[in-house]
Amino acid sequence: MSDTELAGRRARILLVDDTATDVELTLTAFEDAHLANDVAVARTGGEALDRLQGRTRNADGTRPPLPDLILLDLKMPGIDGFEALRQIKATPILRRIPLIVLTSSREEGDRAFSYDTGANSYLVKPVSFEGFVDAVGKILDYWLVLNVRPPLPTHLFEDESVADDPVPAPALPLAAPETSP
Amino acid sequence: MLGHGSVVIEKAYVRPDGTLVPILVADTLLPGPEPLLAGFVLDITARKAAEDEIRRLNAELEERVVERTAKLEAANRELETFSYSVSHDLRSPLRAITGFAEILDRRYRDRLDAKGSHYLDNIIEGGRHMGVLIEELLEYSRLGRGEVHAEPVPLGPILDRLRTTYAGRIAAGGGMLAVAEPLGIPVGDPVLLEQVLANLLDNALTYRRTDVTPLVTVSAVRHNGRVRLAVADNGIGIPAEFQGRILEPFVRLHTADEYPGTGIGLATVRKAARLMDSDVTVESTPGVGSIFSLDLRAAAWGRKATS
Prior knowledge:
The complex is a heterodimer.
Chain A lengths: L4 E2 L2 E2 L1 E5 L3 H13 L5 E5 L2 H8 L16 E4 L8 H9 L9 E5 L4 H10 L3 E4 L4 H18 L13 H5 L17
Parallel strand pairs in A: 3-4, 3-5, 5-6, 6-7
Antiparallel strand pairs in A: 1-2
Chain B lengths: L5 E9 L5 E11 L5 E8 L1 H64 L5 H29 L8 E2 L2 H11 L1 H6 L3 E5 L6 E2 L1 H17 L8 E9 L2 E8 L31 H11 L4 E6 L3 E9 L4 H5 L1
Parallel strand pairs in B: 5-7
Antiparallel strand pairs in B: 1-2, 2-3, 4-6, 7-8, 8-10, 9-10
């Protein structure tokens, strides 16, 4: 497989994982699977939400564009993957982004929560690196190349005034909670 | 109880100072031309006190049993949660060790000399072994976290599945898996029973003698409302002094070079058996073979259940 291209550009992936060695392994697995995508890394669920909801700025002051795919770890400090997953899937637009839970947990409860909350796939981090390269190659090929999804805007808020506002956007204006008890 | 025309009552007299004395009054009518009423009054303070004491002790004992059981259950749960999270959290650093060792293997192997290459192999092999250990520990601690079912479990389909799963390993040794028909139907948990049979089969195929064709026989003999599920092999056997310990977690009798293993397989069998209110019995003769068996309740026959 060569670089994953979407409409002439490289696919953007948001990797959310707090374990540095796991991040490095995942990035190396992308390399070994010959997937030269643009990968952004968030270290907590909170960082991921900031980025997706337009509260993060690049060095040049622009907002990072929405990713084409989210890889989300579950057990993280602060806002963990469970909460991030819940908020992402409760937000219009964001819920369209294919989201793959990437965790070391095989727990039935974690799997059930992930699927019930709208995760698109659930991948257990294999202990073997070779297995990991294989899994990453397959899953990215499916979600970025074969799968057809509705179009996504570049940002959650197209209104640049929101982006230029130095005050962080109010917490979750779009996350109309569809929560059930 | 006295005879006809008798009265026995327990009541209390009041002392002049107002305190009560428990007493027993017994009267009996002695018939005859001149009927007589004979009777006695007995101070039963001591007996009453003893009765109260017994009641109090019984209640206290019951309370203590409930308390101890609750404590024991809590300790068990804590131990299970602990071993689960330990084995769970061990996975992450292990992934780093084996992952980067494999990356070294893929990208830098040609830059290592023979010694360096050998060390790297040791890291990768150690990591693999630890991976298996963690998976088996997880399996062990997971057992019984869910509900344990008690239902009739036909063993035929389970053995068919295991025959397929272990086909490669059975054939590799030129061995045979024999099933002694008819198989009795035990009452147990189907998942636990499959785990028990898989681990016992794995054990029998691992500890085989190289000088004979491995033969594993599974039987489930029904007798007196019980089913004795047994897995017999003609393997290396277990010396008598170790037969008691072989079912404990992490107890191994051989080095990993002689026979691969983690020492959790048979412990898992015992835990599963105990969850089904049974236990595992080991009979073994070194150089001849071993029999592992579980005594389980037999399922009622269908025709008996309907008649």
